[in-house]
Amino acid sequence: MANLLVTGGAGFIGGNFVHYWADRHPDDTITVLDSLTYAGNRSTIESVEQAELVVGDIRDTELVEKLLRERGIASLVHFAAESHVDRSITGPDAFIDTNILGTNSLLEAARAVWLDEGSGRAHRFHHISTDEVYGSLGPEDPAFSETHQYQPNSPYSASKASSDHLVRAYHHTFGLEVTTTNCSNNYGPFQYPEKLIPLFLLNALHGRNLPIYGDGMNVRDWLHVEDHCRGIEVCLDRGQPGETYNIGGGEELPNMTVIDRICSEVDRALEEIDGLSARYPDAPAARGRATSELKTFIADRKGHDRRYAIDETKARDELGYKPRHDFESGLKATLRWYLENEAWWRALLDRA
């Protein structure tokens, strides 16, 4: 039996991790610390019996110390972050506050309880980061490895790069037992509808434009969120303190390919699922037209990275990590989840 503290556990990836961990470690207790910003949703984890939600800020060092100390927590899994690049361009301050100052606050709390108080308790601080810290790749460049130079190009990726460096420093300076995983583009259930897949799905269902940045040929490595959770699990189990591991999905695709597949799946769903056209009468497919007619090209995003790709050799060789979801089946399952869980995403949109 273990006690975990999961920051940002009511968000997209953190919430999926809470479900994943509870299913596979039913005797463990999970404390979720989440400030329930726009992207956090208590309903995401309300069905997980062994998870307790504490509404609070990761910058509240005293609160985190209290949770670690009083609950005997030896593993902290840090998801909490501002993560939407567009928001970081229009309002970078929140990214500095949460991603840098918040991570430092957690590290200080962990150092105080796990090291300074001299308990001698084995511990692990696991930090979730992103491939965006590595910058942008050219068409023929090799994929990002853990030794790739950091070259963040947005306020979001710069704030995550800073937090990565802080985590590394607390290991080398103070001896805190840390690991870091840098993941590629996640998709799956419970994702807030500002990211590409849920945004385009819901826009398609409501007959709204599908806004495509630039020429739509920016390339990303797509990772099903369950595979990401599996990667974190093996890192917690077998990862070496102080090490970084890249977690990818092995599905490098241009955005336009992803968008075309979303359009095709929405068309297919409205044709095959009884009553769906009546639920979403504004969808082109409900009127016998193609969802693809909603595609609209807009001015490219400032500083838009052209290509990301993950080399997961280290995680595969040292941890035994391997993604199990291919993009085709993973996308179909994701779209069906959103269709079957309208109450979840509609509540988010209603409060936005």
UniProtKB/TrEMBL annotation:
Q: What is its EC number?
A: 4.2.1.46
Q: Which reaction does this enzyme catalyse, per its entry?
A: dTDP-alpha-D-glucose = dTDP-4-dehydro-6-deoxy-alpha-D-glucose + H2O
Which ranges carry the NAD(P)-binding domain?
Answer: 5-333
**Short name of one Pfam family:** GDP_Man_Dehyd
Q: Does the keyword Glycosyltransferase apply?
A: no
Output the superkingdom of the source species: Bacteria
UniProt keyword Lipid metabolism present: no
Record CDD domains? dTDP_GD_SDR_e
- GO MF assignments: dTDP-glucose 4,6-dehydratase activity
Keyword terms of this UniProt record:
Lyase, NAD
Cofactor dependency: NAD(+)
Class in the EC hierarchy, top level: lyase
- Which SUPFAM superfamilies does the record match to this protein? NAD(P)-binding Rossmann-fold domains
Give the family this protein belongs to, as stated in its UniProt record. Belongs to the NAD(P)-dependent epimerase/dehydratase family. dTDP-glucose dehydratase subfamily.
Full protein name: dTDP-glucose 4,6-dehydratase
What's the source species for this entry? Erythrobacter rubeus
The upper taxonomy is: Bacteria, Pseudomonadati, Pseudomonadota, Alphaproteobacteria, Sphingomonadales
